[in-house]
Amino acid sequence: MKKLLPVSTAGSLPKPSWLAQPETLWSPWKLQGDELADGKKDALRLCLADQLQAGIDIVSDGEQTRQHFVTTFIEHLSGVDFEKREIVKIRDRYDASVPTVVGEVSRQKPVFVDDAKFLRQQTSQPIKWALPGPMTMIDTLYDSHYKSREKLAWEFAKILNQEAKELEAAGVDIIQFDEPAFNVFFDEVNDWGIATLERAIEGLKCETAVHICYGYGIKANTDWKKTLGSEWRQYEEIFPKLQKSSIDIVSLECQNSRVPMDLIELIRGKKVMVGAIDVATNAIETPEEVANTLRKALQFVDADKLYPCTNCGMIPLPRRVANGKLNALSAGAEIVRREILAK
Ligand SMILES: [Zn+2]
């Protein structure tokens, strides 16, 4: 990106109420068949229009065509039985009913490529596409086939790489892998998590990002955060290895978080998507609050590598709130952009 401080969002944005129940994760679709297919496209267009109106530079589909950032991708793979469900503890934190891996996993056909092509047709802005990362995928499943988290992660990495290459060919500028699990399973991240991520981006020429957050603003996550103490140093465990990886961009949670900002120093050289919008509150940040967070981050990121962003996806928020936050984000970025250019 040539523009200084290009603004983007971490991932999901609220869906229109005629498409899915607002403020709900895994919300069932309200339409069916052809109406659903058309409805998803209409929602994608609206979501894009909201982003453009708010001045978001790197736009996305806002995940309008998926029910959930992990399970929708998995639904399209063979080897996973969605009828056979087990209760597992996701991110070592909360119980969820998840599908079971019953055989070899493979991708029979592209998952999001048509959606990405559709988004590409609608805008000439740079676009970012989010995919779940291998570790977060295995953490959202019950595995009765491979019986090894690492082995299954390598299989998913191969599949993600196939999808990513086709997304790149469809004109996606940045492919982002969502890895909230990186904030929990540090030993695995260092043993094979980052390695599987690098397998997922193998051979890509477009930019690549990894999004590592403290989760959506749902109760299980906000309760967990309360147990983390006054300083959240999770990133410290994985940044040294991530700094050496071939991932271009790291997307982080910074607004209202207890992550010491100086930890960003550990990934010096990477582009950093600095979360300057809290997704766990309906309070809309002021542009000055956003600017303050960006100024703090600028102590540890070179200006040409700082990408203002949201802490995480905004699907659990009311649409009005999410739009207000998008506007605050780009207004806050503009304040700091002017300060930098005036120097
Ligand atoms: Zn997130």
Which key terms come to mind for this protein?
single chain, 343 residues, alpha/beta, 6-stranded parallel β-sheet, 3-stranded mixed β-sheet, 10 helices, 38% helix, globular, binds zinc ion
Note the overall shape: globular
Task: Name the average pLDDT.
Answer: 95
Bound molecules: zinc ion
What is the spatial order of strands in the main beta sheet? 3-5-6-7-8-9
- Rounded to an integer, what's the Rg over CA atoms? 19 Å
* SSE class: alpha/beta
Strand content: 15-25%
Q: Biggest sheet, open or closed, and with what strands and sense?
A: 6 strands, parallel
What oligomeric state is this? single chain
Run of helices and strands: HHEEHEHEHEHEHHEEHEH
What is the helix fraction of residues, given as a range?
A: 25-40%
Task: List low-pLDDT spans.
Answer: none
Q: Gap between N and C termini, in Å?
A: 21 Å
Number of helices: 10
The tally of strands reads 9
Task: Describe, in short, the structure shown.
The chain is α/β, with parallel strands linked by helices and 343 residues long. It has 10 helices and 9 strands.
Account of the protein in words:
By secondary structure, this protein is of the alpha/beta class. Helices cover 38% and strands 17% of the residues. The protein has helices at residues 33-54, 71-75, 113-122, 134-138, 149-169, 186-200, 219-226, 234-244, 287-297, 319-342, and strands spanning 77-90, 94-107, 128-132, 142-143, 174-178, 207-212, 249-253, 271-275, 306-309. The strands form two sheets. The protein has a six-stranded parallel sheet. A three-stranded mixed sheet has the order 1-2-4. Helix 1 (33-54) packs across helix 3, helix 5 (149-169) packs parallel to helix 6 and helix 6 (186-200) runs parallel beside helix 8. The chain is globular and about 60 Å long. The protein starts with 32 loop residues before the first helix and ends with a helix. The model has no long low-confidence stretch (mean pLDDT 95). Zinc ion is lined by residues 10, 180, 211, 213, 312-313.
